[in-house]
Amino acid sequence: MRVLLIGSGGREHALAAALATSPALTRLYIAPGNPGTASLGENVAISASDVAALVAFAQTHAIDLVVPGPEAPLVVGLADACAEAGIACAGPTQAAAALEGSKTFTKEVCDAARIPTARWERFEDAERALEFVRRRGAPIVIKADGLAAGKGVVVAQTLGEAEAAIVDMMTSDKLGEAGRSVVIEECMVGEEVSLFAFCAGRDAVLIGAAQDHKRIGDGDTGPNTGGMGAVSPPSGFDREAQERALDLLVRPMLVEMERRGTPFCGVIFAGLMLTDEGPKLIEYNVRFGDPEAQALLIRLETDLLPALAALAKGSLEGVSISFSDAASAAIVLAARGYPGEPAHGGVIGGIERAEAVPGVRVFQAGTARDAEGRLIAVGGRVLTVCATAPGLREAIDRAYQGVAAIRWDEAVWRGDIGARALSKAG
Question: Quick check: pTM over 0.85?
Answer without folding.
Answer: yes
